[in-house]
Design a protein that fits this description.
The protein has about 170 residues and is of the alpha/beta class. The protein has 5 helices and 6 strands; from the N terminus they run H-E-H-E-H-E-H-E-H-E-E. The structure holds flavin mononucleotide. It is an enzyme of class 1 (oxidoreductase).
Length: about 170
């Protein structure tokens, strides 16, 4: 065998194992947002369950809980020369860095809760940091299970160029 070919064959197994370990390291980053600010929120419970399930059984995916409580109410007067208040910038950066979004949404009066809509609106300001990301919704609400809030999140998200997974999950 030519020296160059033999050298390549000797190197191949190492290259193959490198590519497997690279795949194992590659992480899909999920930003999880809860529409309820309640301390004992069932929706934040859904996110924490998802985080645990992911740790146990989905290597290559990491879910981070993104707290929306510190965000001020949307007000374009807070925008200065295309920049946002530091807490808003930090939130937008976390959305930007995520590959996909998990919304956990209560239903408030047949729709999305105000804190969640506020967070969605901040991240929609230019440049829209939701654009072209995959998204999923889970919900815990009253008798409806949150179906109507899920439907409204989809309507808002389609306008913002999010790509939603079909087959909604909800529980009541
Ligand atoms: C202001 C308000 C409005 C609500 N409206 C609805 C509603 O329209 N439909 C529904 O199924 N539940 C409704 N609920 C109940 C909540 O969705 C339910 O308590 C849910 O568990 C709250 O989520 P959390 O446990 O994550 O805080 C409402 C609750 C509040 C506080």
């Amino acid at each position: 065998m030519e020296v160059s070919k033999r050298k390549r064959r000797e190197e191949e197994p190492e290259m193959a194992s490198n590519s497997v370990s690279n795949q194992a390291q590659a992480q899909i980053k999920v930003a999880a947002i809860c529409g309820s600010l309640r301390r004992a929120s069932r929706n934040s419970g859904l996110i924490h369950c998802a985080i645990e399930i992911c740790k146990e059984s989905i290597p290559g995916m990491k879910i981070d809980f993104i707290d929306i409580e510190p965000l001020p109410f949307v007000n374009v007067d807070l925008e200065k020369n295309g920049t946002y208040p530091p807490v808003v910038e930090a939130f937008r950066q976390k959305i930007l860095e995520a590959d996909c979004i998990l919304f956990a949404s209560p239903e408030y009066n047949y729709s999305v809760s105000a804190p969640l809509k506020n967070a969605i609106d901040w991240a929609s300001r230019p440049p829209n940091v939701w654009a072209d990301k995959a998204a999923a919704i889970v919900s815990a609400a009253g008798g409806s299970g949150g179906q109507r809030s899920q439907y409204h999140i989809r309507q808002i998200g389609v306008f913002l160029d999010l790509h939603f997974i079909n087959k909604p999950v909800h529980c009541s």
